[in-house]
Amino acid sequence: MRVATWNVNSIRTRVGRVVDWLDREDVDVLAMQEIKCKESQFPFEQFSEAGYEVELHGLNQWNGVAFASRLPMEDVERGFRSAPGFSKTEIDGPPLEARAMAVTVDGVRLWSLYVPNGRSLDDPHLAYKIDWLGKLADDTREWLAEHPEQPLALMGDWNIAPLDTDVWPTWDFANNTHTSAPERAAFAQFEAIGLQDVVRERVPEGFTFWDYQQLRFPRNEGMRIDFILGSTPFAELVTGASIHRAERKGDAPSDHVPVVVDLDLPTEDDDDRPMIF
User: Fold this and answer.
1) Any idea which of 4-8, 69-73, 86-90, 235-239 has the lowest mean pLDDT?
2) CA-CA distance, 55 to 39, in Å (whole number)?
3) DSSP single-letter state for residue 63
4) Given Cys at both, which of 47, 56, 104, 176 links 75, Cβ 3.0 to 4.6 Å?
């Protein structure tokens, strides 16, 4: 099974590129972020014509996550239990954003995540980002404990560059989000509870995001902020991985590119197929 994640930066703007890429690269399941639309606005028809079903979590013209799959999707979950909301004002119960959803495909639990940006080191959105990740880590720890044999992957735009080599050499580490110590610690907690970056060992170098401004892409001034973190049962299924840099080229590209993993799933004839309850 070929699984991918891609921050598409408005699916209505880029549906043609996305569907063409899905078909060309023979992708079975795609986790999308920043779809930027509600369900009533999503271009379902183009995906359906290509053989894909879609499940999405979109509340307005901001954020939004989705899955497109040509395999059956089960146990659809929109948002995670402990997810905090965000508001610029001091109010009780700030509204939740459409930043996370999960599906199960062929026994594999997949999450599409659009982690809050943080905006700047002195912005309230950074505290929200750290809190959001902390709550996600708490819930993930429970999922791993409840279903230790089930392959699990958290995929998406993490808005964190965990290593210095994940940004271009002249990046200002002291004055920018994405590389601050609290953000990197928030990312590291997922590895501490048992997840691993299943792409880096196979693709040790390469960015996944380049800003549209200041010729960032031609200068290769990018960031590696899109990741697939998998549990041990998920990692054991991975046979290959790739970052599709070419999708940043051409007409009207997203500022992110797809990240892909190939999974070797056991068949029904395998005696050691994990039992999922």
Assistant:
1) 86-90
2) 9
3) -
4) 104
Give the C-alpha separation, 261 to 151, whole Å.
Answer: 13
Q: How far apart are CA 180 and CA 122, in angstroms?
A: 12
pTM for this entry: 0.94
Which 8-state DSSP code applies to residue 41? G
Q: What pLDDT sits at residue 276?
A: 47
Domain 2-263: state its class. Answer: alpha beta
Task: Name the residue ranges covered by the structural domains of the chain.
Answer: 2-263
Percent of the chain with pLDDT over 70: 95
Rg (CA), the chain: 18
Percent of the chain past pLDDT 90, that is, above it, reads 89
Query: b vs e for 191-229, b when ≥16 Cβ sit within 10 Å of the residue's Cβ?
Result: eeebbbbbbbeebeebbbbbeeeeebbeeebbbbbbbbb
